[in-house]
Every structure is written in C-alpha cells, then in structure tokens.
Design goal:
Layout: H1 12-22, E1 29-30, H2 47-59, H3 72-83, E2 94-99, H4 101-115, E3 120-125, H5 129-138, E4 141-146, H6 156-164, E5 170-175, H7 188-199, E6 204-209, H8 223-231, E7 235-240, E8 253-258, H9 265-279, H10 286-296, H11 298-325, E9 327-328, E10 331-332, E11 343-345, H12 350-358, E12 362-363, E13 369-371, H13 380-391
Parallel strand pairs: 1-12, 3-4, 3-5, 5-6, 6-7
Antiparallel strand pairs: 2-8, 7-8, 9-10, 11-13
Helix pairs in contact: 2-10, 2-11, 3-10, 4-5, 4-9, 6-7, 7-8, 10-11
The chain binds (2S)-2-hydroxybutanedioic acid.
(2S)-2-hydroxybutanedioic acid binds next to loops.
Protein name: Aromatic amino acid transaminase
Keywords: Aminotransferase, Coiled coil, Pyridoxal phosphate, Transferase
Family: Belongs to the class-I pyridoxal-phosphate-dependent aminotransferase family.
C-alpha cells in the first residue's frame, strides 16, 4: 500500500535553500526563501529575543503542557499591535490561540472555514504557493482573481469582480501587508473600498498578516486588517511572528477569530482547539514564550521595535538602489522601489531564471520572486549586472 504513493516534488521554494547551499561559488547570492538578512548577509537572532531567551532559561520552572491554545499571555500581548490599542478585542468579539507559525494558523483557519460549511476560497493570483496547497489539501475550492495589474499597482477591477461574483459559502484570503510574492499592497483608499465591499457581501475575510512591521510600520501595516474588521461581522486573522521577531524555525504564530456576538466566541474557538489537538495537539512553546517576555518588558519592546525599524530601513535602501537602476537589460527595476516587504517580482522568463542560477549563481523562485533582503550594498551591483546580462 505505502508503495502505491506517488513521488511528490520537493517544495520548490524550500528546495532553493539546498540548491544555493551546494553551489560552490563564493559570490553566489540567495534571494530565495523569505528570511531577512543584514547588510552583512546574516540572519541574526534579534537582540531583544536573545535577552528574552536568557530570561526564559533562567526563570522558566516547568515545561508542563499548556493546552491546545498554547501561551495565552503571548496571544493577548500581541493583540494591541494587531488590532489597535483602543479596540484590541473589539468589545469581546476577538479571541486567539497560539499556532506553529503562520502556516499552522492558516491550516487551522482554513480547516475551521471548511468545518463551518464554506466551500470556496477567493485568492489573488499570484499568492504564496502554500495558500493554494493548504486549500487543496483540505478539499476547499480556490477561486483566483488577478492581484496585480500590468502597471504594477493592484488590479482593483479584478478584485471588485471577484467580490461581486461571490456566492454564499465563499471566504476570501487577503494579504494584510507586504504581499507575497509581488510586494504590491493595497493603498489605504483601496482598503477602505475593500472593507465597504466586504461589508455588503456574505464573504468571510481571512487576513494573513505574516510581515507586520516590514512594510511601512507596525501601525501602518495593520491599516487594512483594522479597516476590514470594523466593517464586517466575522473574520479570521492568521498571524506570524516568524519574520517580525526573526523566529523562523521556532514556528511562532497565532490564529484570531472575530465573531458578531461575543456569546459565540468560546464555541468558535473550541473548534480551533479541537483542530489543533487533532493536528499537533499543542504548539511548541519556546519562541512564543520569548515573544511574550519581550512584550511584557517595556525596554525589550522598545529594543525589538528599534531592530524592526532598522530591518525596514535597510530593505527600503535596497529597494531605492534597485529602483535607481531603472531600465536594466530587458526589465524595469523602477517599480521595486515602491513595493513593500521582503519580496518583489522581476518579470524574468523561466529561461532567464535558470540563467541567473547557472551563469551567475543567483537563486530565487521560478516565479521571478526575489527576496530583496538577500541584496546588500556589496552585491547589488553584481545582481543588477546579471539582470542586464540575462535579460538583454
Ligand atoms: C516565503 O514565502 O519564502 C516564506 O513565507 C517562507 C515559507 O515558508 O515559504
């Protein structure tokens, strides 16, 4: 029986890590999987997290189970950052639970949606490949609309049409900020319109907020999510601390549900708890406990926010330098300057992606998605020259 299983391809994005690692060239560049890198090309542990971890090791007196909801102190401390200081639980309508990373949260959100009787998820195209993969695994149909228009802005007409054509039993999965893979986010005016359109529909919004603070700021990056949440009766929010606390492999995330009537909250969340139990039972503790300790301490919080600002500033500098290269070979790098977060798409053909790898040792996804944080002031000219070479 087991031998009847079909060979599955390795995840294309994760496979890039190995491909890059095994390339012997000293001047190779990794623009693949979404991790932040400093100007020296490292992905260090945040200083605030290091300090919190030291405190955790010194003070933690038990590793006994916490339950399927994980560390509720962590879950609650994050809420003012996500939902706003003044409306952190929307009058008792929001509750959360800890999950293994943003993926664990999305898995629970989509499984909950399926349990609730939703059949289809409206997803912008392109999206993070794991979105569609999780939907497929759960037997949820995906209805795609075009996310980005030819001029490098969002394709609002496509989104309007998708919302207008929605049926009863549809959910919509929206990237809260730092769109992965395009870096093209909705403007505030567009979010205002999206919130109004969703308010008039029966569509359940699921907001994926995996990069808060890496776009334009912690508050600014939550604008769209908050606009949608004040407009609609119910929503789910998938949150990741992997990037904004640099905790990638520790898998730190949270799922929040907002309901219309606070009396329904415990029933809704009990489904999240039951699904967690059936999947991983209880989330891993360490990273979430470290985040909680950061957020419980004013000095560590200030240090964390400062480190986050530095990351964002560096990515802005890289984006500005790429944009300044302008028309490079057959592509225009100008739009990268106005995009947000770790990612942008450069319109390479599949052959050009391959040539960037084989000829220049520069690795990124087949979609042309580059992780701008993989570029430094030391290697950016090399990247631009390679782009000019393969696209000429
Ligand atoms: C990415 O898109 O590179 C990140 O979200 C990491 C991942 O798990 O794919």
């Amino acid at each position: 029986m087991l031998n009847d299983l079909k060979q599955q391809p390795a995840d294309a994005l994760l496979a890039l890590i190995k491909l890059h690692n095994t390339d012997p060239r000293a001047d190779k560049i990794d623009l693949g999987v979404g991790v932040y890198r400093t100007g020296q090309g490292d992905t260090p542990v945040f200083g605030a997290i290091k300090a919190a971890e030291a405190k955790l090791v010194a003070e933690q007196d038990s590793k006994a189970y916490l339950g399927p909801e994980g560390d509720m102190g962590f879950v609650e401390k994050l809420m003012p950052y996500i939902f706003g200081k003044d409306s952190a639980d929307m009058g008792g309508r929001i509750e959360g639970m800890q999950t293994p990373g943003g993926t664990g949260s999305l898995r629970l959100a989509l499984a909950m949606v399926k349990r609730a009787g939703y059949r289809r998820v409206i997803v912008g195209k392109p999206s993070w490949p794991n979105h569609n993969q999780i939907c497929a695994d759960l037997g949820l149909e995906v209805f795609e609309f075009n996310h980005a228009a030819a001029d490098g802005t969002t394709d609002m007409d496509a989104l309007r049409a998708a919302i207008a054509s929605a049926q009863e039993g549809d959910a919509i999965l929206l990237h809260g900020c730092c769109h992965n893979p395009t870096g093209i986010d909705y403007t505030h005016t567009e979010w205002d319109e999206i919130a109004a359109l969703l308010a008039q529909s029966t569509i359940l919004p699921i907001i994926d907020l995996a990069y808060q603070g890496l776009g334009t700021g912690m508050e600014e990056d939550a604008y769209g999510l908050r606009r949608v949440l004040v407009a609609v009766p119910e929503a789910l929010v998938s949150y990741s601390c992997d990037k904004n606390f640099g905790l990638y492999r520790d898998r730190v995330g949270a799922l929040y549900a907002m309901v219309a009537d606070p009396a329904d909250l415990s029933k809704v969340m009990s489904n999240g708890h039951a699904l967690a139990r059936a999947n991983w039972s209880q989330p891993p503790d360490h990273g979430a406990a470290a985040v909680r300790l950061v957020l419980e301490d004013a000095e560590l919080t200030a240090q964390w926010l400062d480190e986050l600002d530095q990351m964002r500033d560096r990515m802005r500098q890289v984006r500005a330098k790429l944009a300044a290269a302008g028309k490079t070979g057959g592509v225009d790098l100008t739009p990268v300057g106005g995009q947000n977060g770790l990612f942008s798409i450069v319109p390479f053909t599949p052959e050009q992606v391959q040539a960037m790898r084989t000829k220049h040792g520069i690795y990124f996804a087949a979609s042309g998605r580059i992780n701008v944080a993989g570029l430094t002031m030391a290697n950016i000219d090399q990247f631009v020259a390679a782009v000019a070479d393969v696209t000429a």
